[in-house]
Specification:
Elements (H helix, E strand, L loop, with lengths): L1 H18 L58 H7 L67 E15 L6 E20 L12 E4 L2 E5 L9 E8 L1 H14 L6 E6 L6 H14 L5 E6 L9 H10 L1 H14 L4 E7 L3 H14 L6 E7 L5 H10 L4 E8 L4 H9 L20 E5 L19 H13 L4 H4 L4 E5 L2 E5 L6
Length: 492
Amino acid sequence: MRRVGVLALCLAALALASCGEAPDRSETTPEPPAVGSPPPDVSGAPDSGTFGDKDIVAEPAPEPTPAPPPPPSPAPDYHQRQQIDPDGSRRPSFRTAPPPSAGAAPPPAGRIAPPAARVPGAPPPAAAEYQPPAGAAPPPPPEVAAAAVGEWDVVPVYYGTDRAERSTKDRLDYGSDRGRRLELGRALVTVPKAHREPLIERPWAIRVFNITLYEEAEDPNRHFTMQEVKALSEDELLALVRERLAASKRYKDHAFIFVHGYNTSFDYAIYRTAQIAYDLKFDGAPFAYSWPSGGGIASYTYDRESSGQAEPYLREFMEMVINKTGAKSVSVIAHSMGNQPTLQVLRELRRSKPDDVRISQVILAAPDVDRDNFENIAREIKGLASGVTLYAAGNDRALIVSRNFYGGIPRAGDVPLTGPLVLPGIDTIDVTAASMDSLGLNHSGYAENNDLLDDIAALIERGIRPPKLRTPQLEEVTTERGAYWRYPAARR
């Protein structure tokens, strides 16, 4: 037996000599794995005689007692890998995660922190995220990836309304009834960072005749939501607006006023204003005026009368924005039926205080106004603003309904067979080929199409005219009454 034991010890010594000296794992960092290879096993050696896939395992001798197993191998250090490959010719097999903020939860398992996030000399994490080899399916693009908790921005909207307050258990709200007074306030709207221009992401719902049968729960990570709606005095509102304007850079000291159209609730008017401001990257002061629309397709007659009675309150609101906020440039965007009270107010402002009015751009989007009446008002407001732009569409279904309702007279925002309305001092743009269908009405194309948003952004920010200079793809069309511009038919 002694001879057998001595022979076994000799064989073990020869095997160790042929493999080389075992490394000191406490001082030597293993060679990083090749690109595309899975991370090394960090679970530790399962057997005291295992040193690698090609190691020779000696038959254990009855004596002496086997040595204890070596400690587990540490995971490859990303920082060391960067030192090995400073020129980037060999890409690391690991992706870094953003460093955790104070008090944040630790990174999920399988992800290592970048070098700057780790304490020098501290052991690396136990595992690293595996990088798929070349040819593997790419990760989903950022715009469709699910947003993490807290992934939203907040847009302030300063509002005026003559709607009556509506009782709700959660927050201040306004309904379709007329309040017969001007109320001011500020809404804080959350916009998800996963937002896709130029949509307003809201919970999916099933509604029949304004009755909600099912509605998905609101999630600020995926939807526009109201973080706060608060009524303010004029002094309180002006203080907030001046603070916002003082911090503005891209749109320095600039404000815009949005007046919504037919079939629009208070919340949707606020969401639309926030969406326009967010997509334009507007860092000035966004204002919304919400008159008491019925908020339903069947409320056309009520909306028509309701928009008209809102004129004195809209005027009070616009005069406050123009004369009291400190804004050096104010633009007005009116949509659909909202053009009716807006044009009347602009006419009154032109008559009474021409020297005090500082309006940069007037944008009349799909105006639901009688053509002849529009021409009369257009002549009277000439010179009130630096520029007036009319967006017209031949496929706006709401305007077609309105035209039929009023005896077949084309509306100012129509594009009938004879062409759009062309007037001196007004830039008319036919957006028929660029419009997008909205809720089957094709009635919000001005805000739901990137081409139009880009044109509005250049117009408000720099006031470039004529339109083709800011939007080169527009085609110029010459008529007996003058020129207008249109998006090419290939965009249909």
